[in-house]
Write a structure and sequence with these properties.
The chain has 13 helices and 14 strands. The chain is an alpha/beta fold. The strands form 3 sheets. Strands 3-2-1-4-5-6 form a 6-stranded parallel sheet, sandwiched between helices. A 6-stranded parallel sheet has the order 11-10-9-12-13-14. A two-stranded parallel sheet has the order 7-8. The chain is globular and about 75 Å long.
């Protein structure tokens, strides 16, 4: 039987994957956001993960995006790529997965396969998602329909490590289905695939990838705090230590986004449900979640040392997205710097040429400008290392007595007053 693919969720993960599948298979992208679908069918991806040229070529060759569930009934290989966020209490929110599973249940037929890509803790696919599909469809799992799990590894904004160039972990609900899932993915992933023995192994592999990065970044963030008290430049220390062949090159900074700042909470909750309190994972999260407030407090200390009037002073924050050269503002920790500084009754301007000001206003309730302000400010915080910032003469933005704080180690050392 000919494979007909439907990718559910056309965000940073789903769209690049759907576009890639469309080069080999009949593929439909499904998203409940009609305006998103219309924009894609007009040939433009606002996330900038897929270029207009590639998207328009895919559409010309038959790729279609839709918000109509009836359009995906003829598919037989469903891929779920919806977000898996946490709520305000850092508890995993599986609502998007339940919704996507309901959609699959409405259209899945006997013999079909549904593969989940959303990041979850081990067991979610079989224990949370599949029962929804069974209930809505009336079909029996591993008898009438089958499942797989292949964790997404998209790195937003990275034009070098695109989806086809990143090795893919695959798995299936049976040995035979695992091989089938692996065969379909390996046909488009040039970097190759790794077939995990079970879906739970694949789920666990994904969630520890980002938890490991989170813990390593937390370690260097703690080092940054220690070396700051010792009067030692952290970047100099890391540069020296990196001369050893097996030193891991992590840098201090803000940890936001939809993966590294979220996934550890999924693993932590899973561990707690099974009677184990994960000390290192949660300690890393506490360290990284506190870095925005730490940066704000360090800035204020430096201003006081220079005799700069803090009350009603003008602060410019460069960058708001969660990472450089990317419009993604999900779970950005720059907002923590902003909120902490607001407690000192400052006038704060946020400049980011990548961020969508309407999305930022809706999600965070603050104004982000896309052009540099003309007025000189008392202090600057470089929070995100956008490549455009290379062209900015930062000294021209500040008054004679000022403070420049570099979160990213991006600016020349002699130019800044403080950095992580």
């Amino acid at each position: 039987m000919e494979t007909k693919i439907c990718v559910i969720g056309l965000g940073y993960v789903g769209l690049p994957l759907a576009r890639l599948f469309s080069t080999k298979y009949e593929t439909i992208g499904f998203d409940m956001n009609l305006s998103r679908v219309e924009a894609l069918m007009a040939g433009h991806d606002v996330t900038l993960e897929v270029s207009d040229e590639l998207l328009q070529e895919a559409i010309k060759n038959g790729f279609k995006c839709t918000a109509n569930v009836d359009d995906i009934r003829e598919c037989n290989f469903y891929v779920v790529a919806v977000p898996t966020p946490v709520d305000k209490n850092n508890t995993p929110d599986l609502t998007p997965l339940y919704g996507a599973s309901t959609t699959v249940g409405k259209v899945i037929s006997k013999g079909d396969i549904v593969v989940y890509e959303s990041t979850v803790y081990p067991g979610v696919t079989e224990e949370e998602c599949i029962p929804v599909v069974e209930k809505v469809s009336g079909l029996k799992f591993n008898v009438d329909f089958f499942a797989g799990y292949s964790p997404e590894r998209i790195n937003p904004g990275d034009k070098l490590h695109t989806v086809e160039k990143i090795k893919k972990v695959t798995s299936g609900s049976t040995l035979e289905i695992g091989k089938k899932v692996d065969e379909i993915y390996s046909s488009v992933i040039v970097a190759g695939t790794h077939l995990a023995p079970t879906m739970k192994v694949a789920e666990a592999a994904k969630v520890i990838e980002n938890s490991q990065r989170d813990i390593n970044i937390a370690f260097v963030n703690e080092l940054s705090k220690i070396f700051n008290r010792l009067g030692i430049d952290t970047q100099d220390v890391l540069k020296a230590a990196s001369t050893k062949w097996n030193f891991l090159p992590f840098s201090p900074g803000l940890v936001g986004g939809h993966c590294i700042g979220v996934d550890p909470y999924y693993l932590a909750q899973c561990a707690q449900r099974h009677g184990y309190n994960p000390e290192i994972i949660l300690a890393g999260r506490r360290m990284n979640d506190g870095m925005g407030e730490y940066v704000a407090n360090e800035l204020i200390k430096l201003m006081l040392k220079k005799g700069i009037q803090v009350l009603n002073s003008n602060i410019l924050i460069l960058g708001f997205t969660f990472k450089e050269n990317c419009p993604d503002v999900r779970n950005t920790k720059v907002i923590d710097i902003y909120n902490a500084l607001r407690e000192y009754n400052l006038n704060i301007t946020v400049y980011d040429p990548w961020a969508d000001s309407e999305i930022v206003k809706k999600e965070y309730g603050i104004i982000v400008i896309n052009e540099l302000p003309e007025e000189k400010v008392d202090s600057v915080v470089l929070a995100v290392a956008h490549s455009q910032f290379h062209n900015i003469d930062v000294e021209s933005l500040v008054k004679k007595c000022h403070v420049i704080f570099d979160v990213k180690g991006f600016l020349p050392k002699e130019l800044v007053d403080g950095r992580l």
